Amino acid sequence: MNPPMKNPLDWIENDLERIKEKDLFRILTELETGQSPDITIDGKNYILLGSNGYLGLSVDPAVKEAAREALEKYGTGSGGSRLVSGSTDLHRELEDCIARFKKTEAAILFSSGYLANVGTISSLVGEGDVVYSDELNHASIIDGCRLSRAEIKIYPHLDTGRLESLLCGDGGRKCRKLVVTDTVFSMDGDVAPLKEITELSEKYGAALMVDEAHATGVLGRRGSGATEHFGVEERVPVVMGTLSKAVGSLGGYVAGSHKLVDFIRNRVRSYIFDTSLPAPSLAASIAAIRIIENEPERRERLWSLIHRFRTGIEGMGLKVMPSDSAIVPVLVGEAAPALRFAAVLRERGVYTPAVRPPSVPPGMCRIRVTLMATHTEGQIDAALDAFKAARDIVSDVK
Ligand SMILES: Cc1ncc(COP(=O)(O)O)c(C=O)c1O
Q1: Distance from the CA of 146 to the center of ligand 1, in angstroms?
Q2: Interval 367-381: pLDDT, tens
Q3: Has this prediction a pTM greater than 0.85?
């Protein structure tokens, strides 16, 4: 008789146990509403303080109407990859709109920001090349670097001195070099010194790629992001971004020269072998970018709420990380108190999740607060009261 078959996936149970022992097990929280400041979970009302929809545009009436019209005209799905049957006039219109917004010659869409980073980085550099990456870059950048098989040189967070010494040390190497950085860092909310990084890339002959995911709609006079804020729009050759955050829709993009866009269209696998974005998302993005450009008062309001929240948290002795964006992380420390902190906030009617490893380094767990232009002052003040209560109840905050 054959011995009983062992389930080849038995190891998963042990792996899950190890995650649970470290307080790192993740579960889903289901929202029953859209990304508005007031949400419902399990029929109970909460103030949402953890959305990347910084301008509230995913529920904006004009944006929703644009999506509705596109839905009527084009339907729900795109039916194919861009190079087969999945290209429409709306795809081209959004690409032109992004190129204008980012002040580049051209732009190209991906189905997500993740796919834009992974595919673009792994095609711009390969074996024998070097990529220089900030240690806190987003996972999609890290994965793109790994997939490329280029040598990865990680420099300490925001450390342009170290970046320069790495670039200088490789001065004699005849290979492609790529510097890649988030402009606003997703977990810390701080901003890369883009002017210096641009100058260093130019000085040492490296291409520069920036990820504008959290800067779009928040930084710059027109809200186009950090390249605008730092006045380097015409100097950064590869500008990546996502439409899933302040733009309130879905999709990623790369903006740059016509040649770069032609290269991506012909070489990048996550573009070529992927079904294109559906029309309602495209139309929503076009409408949202129009609002971002034409209604700076929404951004001004967002900044005033960021300031109000930061000042309140600092005043109660909690540790706010030195961010300069709509991401205001309150440092807690270990995973267990971070979970308790988030639970107290939730009991007091505020929903904002605790961020734990691997999203952040061990011992650096935080409540990653994100503000939206659509919050009211009353909601911010109510949230601050909840933070005060959590501070008093959770004793082992860093
Ligand atoms: C900095 C950064 N880059 C890229 C992405 C990926 O974008 P998307 O969610 O559109 O895939 C994200 C968000 O998840 C991000 O925070």
Answers
A1: 17
A2: 999 999 999 999 999
A3: yes
